[in-house]
């Protein structure tokens, strides 16, 4: 695929922004998938597979930055990581064979629900991690499996839903939850890439180009979040902004405004 230099700039800076958003909030795939389908003209399933390359590299870089900053405890978070990865394997098995367009139509209403959850009692999102209370495995395991299935299937918005479960149910701080999210997304995305590649659904030239931008955005954002004292506050603000913008785009409200 021949890409003009103007498109190269859009791909790079758009990917860097997506990597930053994915690391601290989620739903950055709304940017990268739009670039892949609307700007570069890739078919849906090929765009879905190609998008995973940058997600993996940004997650690996972000995980390293969080771990170095003392925000990623793999042993403490082993169960969310394990069951989310298992769910993701099932999700990607469906994704390579089934169109996700119908599911996308439901996604916009999930975003409205998520906005309500984020805005009601916002202090819940700003507390520090409290892991003294054990989660109920009969609730936690299905939640993590469902999160993984969704992430393996479509990815878009998975970070937002994962944060909601980890902060409001598992009682992680927003930054600690982001650290786990980045690691678990990177782990299952590696498996997802293998499956998509096996199906011939990755454009590596485009995917690697986007990966450069996403990795830069993901690493520096994770480094900032791990070291800045007010990172929880800014992560919450970004999360609200991301969900609001997603709702505007999904319901075409920008067309009414302009």
From TrEMBL:
Keywords: Cell membrane, Membrane, Transmembrane, Transmembrane helix, Transport. It comes from the Bacteria. Its main location: membrane. It is found in: Cell membrane. It is a multi-pass membrane protein. The keyword Transport applies. GO terms for cellular component: plasma membrane. InterPro entries: TM_pro_TauE-like (IPR002781), TSUP (IPR052017). The chain crosses the membrane at residues 79-96, 102-120, 141-172, 178-196, 208-226, 238-257. PANTHER family: MEMBRANE TRANSPORTER PROTEIN YFCA-RELATED, TRANSMEMBRANE PROTEIN YFCA. Belongs to the 4-toluene sulfonate uptake permease (TSUP) (TC 2.A.102) family. This is Probable membrane transporter protein.
């Amino acid at each position: 695929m021949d890409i003009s230099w103007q498109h190269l700039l859009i791909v790079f800076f758009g990917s860097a922004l997506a990597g930053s958003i994915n690391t601290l909030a989620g739903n950055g795939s709304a940017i990268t998938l739009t670039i892949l389908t609307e700007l570069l003209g890739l078919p849906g399933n090929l765009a879905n597979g190609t998008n995973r390359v940058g997600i993996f590299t940004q997650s690996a870089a972000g995980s390293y930055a969080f771990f170095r900053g003392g925000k990623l405890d793999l042993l403490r978070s082993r169960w969310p990581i394990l069951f989310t990865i298992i769910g993701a394997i099932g999700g990607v098995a469906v994704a390579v064979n089934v169109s996700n367009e119908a599911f996308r139509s439901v996604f916009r209403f999930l975003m409205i629900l998520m906005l309500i959850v984020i805005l009601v009692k916002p202090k819940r999102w700003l507390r520090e991690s409290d892991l003294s209370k054990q989660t109920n495995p009969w609730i936690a395991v299905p939640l993590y499996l469902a999160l993984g299935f969704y992430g393996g299937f479509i990815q878009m918005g998975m970070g937002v839903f994962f944060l909601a479960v980890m902060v409001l149910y598992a009682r992680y701080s927003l930054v600690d939850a982001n650290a786990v999210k980045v690691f678990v997304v990177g782990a299952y995305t590696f498996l997802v890439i293998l499956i998509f590649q096996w199906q011939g659904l990755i454009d590596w030239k485009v995917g690697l180009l986007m990966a450069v931008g996403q990795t830069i955005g993901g690493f520096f954002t994770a480094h900032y979040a791990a070291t800045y004292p007010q990172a929880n506050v800014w992560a919450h603000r970004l999360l609200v902004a991301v969900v609001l913008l997603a709702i505007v785009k999904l319901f075409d409200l920008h067309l009414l405004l302009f």
